[in-house]
Amino acid sequence: MNKSLIIARKEFTDAITSKRFWAVMGLFFLLYVAGGYVTSFAFRIGGFTESRGLLRTTSSVVSTMSLIAPILGIALAFDAISGERERGTLKVLLSRPLYREHVINGKIVSALALIGLTITVSSVLSISASVLLQGTSVTFDDVVRICLFIALSILFSFAYYSISLFISTFSSRSSHSLTISLGVWIFFAFVLSLLGSLIALAVLGSGPAMSFSREFNQTGGGRQVVISEAFLNYSRRVSEITNTVRAASINHHYSLIANSLFVTSVGPFGQQAQQIDLMSLLASRWVDILVVAVFPVIFLVASYMAFTRRQER
Predict the structure, then answer these.
(1) How far apart are CA 287 and CA 282, in angstroms?
(2) What is the pTM of this model?
């Protein structure tokens, strides 16, 4: 294991001194801060109030994290093996008294440390800035939820690292590995959602229209939205079909868990969104948590098998 740690230390040092790492770190922080302010502005102009401002601010970064965390994992993995192979350094590395397991273990340990450092530091800095600039209060439950969100995001990013690492073990060129890895991300993040909607439309056809009516009384006018039972049933079936298709995407499961952590807002008409306590939330989302955890395990095992059995020429 010492040889793996030596490789991990070298990989970590090379990464934190590279422009790529600091560019991703800066992108994280800027998007976090921008997302927080955009959400705060939207709440103010929409007349929304919040019961717990920190969670409202933090929830704005879920969509940002769902896009940037996979890019971080891909950026660290797409040339992990293919880059060494392309530069001709893999043969030199393997000619030393090292097992292949040492090489891939060192790269995995380094990547996990870099992902954890990037997501944790960016999250803490951006959330702290939001707390100081917006004067929001902090509770112990807020801190626990944010810590769970950071841990979940690290696991989510590491899942994409494992996918890209698996692709890199087969690729002779880093550009090919990067292209395929980004294609996988686009498929999970965007294509599956669109595919689910198209399948629902093909199966169910066009749905019934939502009707509106306007009623007036002595004190003034009011608008009432009339939603038929047929429309509700149609919407429910569309949601079932799209969610079934999107269940193949790790992004879908991550978003379900992350968004559930920050359901705290109160609408302009006084509707209180349901907030589930943490234990009940974890119990109700155990399938999503399992999927996010299993993804990296599957692709790491596949990467081990592919890398240790492949003969370098």
Answers:
(1) 9
(2) 0.84
